[in-house]
């Protein structure tokens, strides 16, 4: 198990290289390949072997990696599963986004997920995502792009022109959020698709003929960094939930286990998970059907399995303590959080919580609990969705954080490495 400093430095590198789900999966693919995992194509016939390590990618935005047990027998041993999601709230570019007003080129955006919008103002923004294009020979291809440099900004309206800004300011996503990219002169025009083509050519993608479509989002170029007098915290974009993706990935790669172990990182959790690559879609179920085509054997495997859904939890905010139940306000650097909700917004039950607590005890890692105030609504995760789709016993856990769904979030520098240690123990457990 790597030390905290080394772990967090690698985490920072991963976060900085992953401005979109496409880039996150690309980074995870590379790390898996370095660790000896073999990529399988879903459209091809598979020949998996006992003790083999494999992964699949769908839509370039969701990924499943797994270890086959040394015995090759999944029905009796089951699969130790960890789940997370690759997407984060953001501003996505519309299909025909270009508008020019007062000589400024702007791009129209659509809010993806439950983004906290105020922090997006006055940030140095860049643009990244996937571009689909045709070649000069007529082939259809795709490529990931990242402008890297700050190319856009959403300036705030000066308080002199909005005297009530600090009292009751609301944000209209249609009119207030289009980022400014350039100042045009005369009758100057700009074509985003042409800009994307030039970006592809700059990457030495030489046979680009026409950009046909894209999935792009703006992101804050500020790098992850430590915060606090003693580096108690770290701040970054997309901690929810790339932090959990990295934790699950490291735990899987580091687990020296002969047991069946699996990591699934789905896209589209922030918008409900109902897609071909979301947790409510068939991706994980179809994988398990391919590994065990016979229904009875597969059902036995699921009965012998367990899922740990990893998604960040709400740490208690020192300025807003009354937003938490008095006995269930987890603190940053206080350990991973078990999330519970009697209305099944989280999938935790006493059996799965007891198992997870035992893994933490064996690693001597502290745990905390989160239950939402009884007079407030509760968010949810991929945990209940996966439990309902597969029928697998499930627990919801996560690292406590502040500023969830902001453009820049905050977490404790101790918690991620601790949760990784627990998950590594879970992956190596002989029975669940």
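^ Assign residues to that structure.
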């Amino acid at each position: 198990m790597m030390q905290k400093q080394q772990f967090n430095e690698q985490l920072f590198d991963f976060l900085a290289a992953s401005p979109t789900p496409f880039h996150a999966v690309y980074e995870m693919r590379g790390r898996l390949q370095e660790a000896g995992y073999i990529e399988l194509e879903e459209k091809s016939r598979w020949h998996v072997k006992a003790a083999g390590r494999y992964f699949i990618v769908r839509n370039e935005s969701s990924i499943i990696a797994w270890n086959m047990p040394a015995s090759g027998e999944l029905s009796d041993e089951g699969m130790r599963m960890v789940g997370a999601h690759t997407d984060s709230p953001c501003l996505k570019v519309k299909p025909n986004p270009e508008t020019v007003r007062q000589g400024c080129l702007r791009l129209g955006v659509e809010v993806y997920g439950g983004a906290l919008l105020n922090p997006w103002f006055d940030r140095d923004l860049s643009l990244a995502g996937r571009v689909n294009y045709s070649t000069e020979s007529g082939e259809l291809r795709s490529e990931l792009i990242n402008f890297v440099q700050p190319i856009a900004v959403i300036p705030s309206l000066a308080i002199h022109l909005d005297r009530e800004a600090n009292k009751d300011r609301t944000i209209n996503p249609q009119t207030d959020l289009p980022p400014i990219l350039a100042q045009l002169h005369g009758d100057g025009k700009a074509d985003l698709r042409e800009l994307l083509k030039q970006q592809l050519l700059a990457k030495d993608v030489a046979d680009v003929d026409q950009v046909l479509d894209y999935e792009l989002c703006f992101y804050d170029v500020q790098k992850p960094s430590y915060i606090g007098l003693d580096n108690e915290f770290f701040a970054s974009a997309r901690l929810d939930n790339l932090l959990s993706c990295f934790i699950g990935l490291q735990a899987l790669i580091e687990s020296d286990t002969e047991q069946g172990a699996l990591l699934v990182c789905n896209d589209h959790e922030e918008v409900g998970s109902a897609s071909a690559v979301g947790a409510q879609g068939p991706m994980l179920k179809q994988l398990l059907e391919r590994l065990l085509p016979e229904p009875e054997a597969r059902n036995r495997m699921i009965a012998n399995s367990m899922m740990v859904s990893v998604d960040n939890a709400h740490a208690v905010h020192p300025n807003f303590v009354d937003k938490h139940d008095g006995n269930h306000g987890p603190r940053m650097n206080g350990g991973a959080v078990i999330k519970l909700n009697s209305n099944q917004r989280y999938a935790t039950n006493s059996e799965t919580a007891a198992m997870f607590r035992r893994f933490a005890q064996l690693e001597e890692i502290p745990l905390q609990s989160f239950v939402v105030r009884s007079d407030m609504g509760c968010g949810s995760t991929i945990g209940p969705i996966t439990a309902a789709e597969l029928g697998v016993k499930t627990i919801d856990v996560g690292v406590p954080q502040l500023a969830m769904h902001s453009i820049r979030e905050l977490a404790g520098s101790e918690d991620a490495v601790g949760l990784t240690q627990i998950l590594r123990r879970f992956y190596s457990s002989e029975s669940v």
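The mean pLDDT is 95.
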